[in-house]
Amino acid sequence: MVMLKVPFSLYLRTALFYVVLVIFTLVFTSTAIIIAPALPYRTRFVIVIQGYTKFVINWLRICCNINYQIYGVENIPKDPCIIYSKHQSTWETFFLQTQFAPQTQVIKQELLKIPFFGWAFGLVEPIAIDRSNRKEAIRTVLREGTEKLNQGVWVLIFPEGTRVPTGRRKKFTRGGAKLAISSGKPLLPVAHNSGERWPNNSLLKYPGTVSLVYGQPIDPFGKTEDQLTQEAEHWINTTSEELNRCSAEDRLFSPA
After folding, report:
1. What is the DSSP letter of 192?
2. What CA–CA distance (Å, rounded) separates 252 from 69?
3. Residue 86: left if φ>0, alpha if ψ -120 to 50, beta else—which one?
4. Distance of CA 86 to the CA centre of its chain
5. Helix (H, G, I), strand (E, B), or coil: what is residue 156?
6. Residue 256 CB-density burial (10 A; 0-12 exposed, 13-18 middle, 19+ buried)
7. Contact 100, 236 (CB under 8 A)
8. CATH node for 8-251
9. What's the predicted TM-score (pTM) here?
10. Quick one: which of 87, 168, 169, 244 has the most CB atoms within 10 Å?
11. Phi, psi (rounded to 5 degrees) for 154
12. What are the angstrom distances between the C-alpha of 3 and each of 7, 82, 107, 247?
């Protein structure tokens, strides 16, 4: 199928989105770095992370007309567990932070070196790993992830390890399954089609609705790492691909 010509207004909206985001990031994170260290961890998460990410999601809706719809909220466990999400774009890294508090996230340690953003992110103690040292990365996830879960903190993991463009698959790593088995906490699978609105390979933001689905928690009891990973991977990939198909026609948009 052939994409229709991208309207000029889309370029303007995207440019405006980033200009405001950069200014807000500089002001917000500079302030957070000063006041957040004195706050308790949970309060720090709500003010620093949720304050920032809620702004981004709302600004995205206002400026770029990107909304969202959530399904399967009834599947979210009462007690914190491992949020196990598809990774198509930057959108879900912001959005999922607005949904679960307090929360920590498994990230590549390079993110903490980004001026302002990384410095503020470090205040909420993410699980930072060195992806070049796989064995040590796994040990870090198991040690710090179990500790956080026992403290009542949600743990967010993107099992693909990197953003994967819509329509493609990448083999899931087993770190999340290892953590589930080690801690006894279930995996909460998350599928979505964010790549249709915020593509990984483009700066443009396409108007429309991101659909996100929470699946039924996957209990690790009696399962191997491979079984747990394969069960979650199958549900997440098939559900995300169905959501992508449902929104495919919306990407052939008319000028806004």
Report:
1. E
2. 20
3. beta
4. 8
5. strand
6. exposed
7. no
8. 3.40.1130
9. 0.89
10. 87
11. -70, 145
12. 11, 38, 34, 14
Q: Look-up: residue for tokens 């199928």?
A: 1
CA distance 172 to 229: 7
Q: Assess contact for 170 and 233: CB atoms under 8 A.
A: no
Q: Which two tokens stand for residue 143?
A: 């040690």
Q: Note whether 80 and 154 are within 8 A (CB).
A: yes
Cα torsion angle, 214, 220, 221, 222, sign: positive
Residue at token pair 């990774």: 87
